[in-house]
Amino acid sequence: MEQLLPLGLKLAEVTARNGASKIYEKRNLAKANKNKDETIRILEELINDLIDDKNELEYIARQYKEEYEKTTISDENINHIKKS
Predict the structure, then answer these.
(1) CB–CB of 72/33 below 8 Å?
(2) What's the sign of the alpha-carbon dihedral 19, 67, 3, 76?
(3) What number of CA atoms fall less than 13 Å from residue 72's CA on the CB side?
(4) Cβ-proximal residues to 1 (8 Å cutoff; 6+ apart), any chain
(5) Taking the model in full, what pTM does it have?
(6) What pLDDT is recorded for position 1?
């Protein structure tokens, strides 16, 4: 369970890093650029950043799943919940 806080922080970091506004900003920068090679470089960088973020998010999701699967509820706890 102690891994949940760092995972949450990492999740917030990844989602903030390439939010929609930053993506549109980079895309607009690429569209405004008259240099074809520079435009391609900017778009490739954007795509690579998004792929990296996707991979990180998949890793975080797997970590959350592993933590969830470790969680067990004893029969005693279930009975206590039923009585409440």
Answers:
(1) no
(2) positive
(3) 4
(4) 67, 71
(5) 0.72
(6) 63
